[in-house]
Amino acid sequence: MKTRTNEMPTIDQFRPVVLRVLSDGKEHAVRDIVEQVASELALSDHVRSQRIASGQLRYANRINWACSGLTQAGLIERSRRGYYRITANGAEVEGRGLGVYTEKDMLEWPAWQDYQDEIASR
Q: What Cα–Cα distance (Å) separates residue 99 from each residue in 4, 17, 51?
């Protein structure tokens, strides 16, 4: 049974759940990923109702950032606009059963290191 949480997960905590949701290898719409991740984590109504200054739901914003980082690291791919699927490297990470996957952890992937280098050079 899932434990309902009243605490907002961090992007680092959302990343492994995004990979788990995508672990079937199929293409998923980002809106479905957001809802499946929230359900997997049994986010409370309180957490689901929090908004950022732009009005966007905070949990959805963080899950979108998790998807963005995982894409830059090559762990998921945008199959088309608004849709993602897991890559072989993403499936390998998902198989580790992690609870947290940080930006520092993603440095194991050359694509993420290249992306970080590009940001630093700007």
A: 16, 8, 24
One-letter amino acid for residue 81 of the chain: R
Calpha distance 116→27 (Å, rounded): 27
What are 80's strand-pairing partners? Answer: 83
What is the tens place of the pLDDT at every residue in 1-41?
344 567 999 999 999 999 999 999 999 999 999 999 999 99
Structure tokens at 13: 């905590």
Burial code of 83-98, b = ≥16 C-beta within 10 A, e = fewer?
bbbbbebbeebbeeeb
Rounded to the nearest integer, the mean pLDDT of the chain is: 94
Helix, strand or coil, per DSSP, at residue 54: coil
**Taking the model in full, what pTM does it have?**
0.91
Instruction: Output the CA torsion 91→37→84→100 (10° steps).
Output: -40
Length of the chain: 122
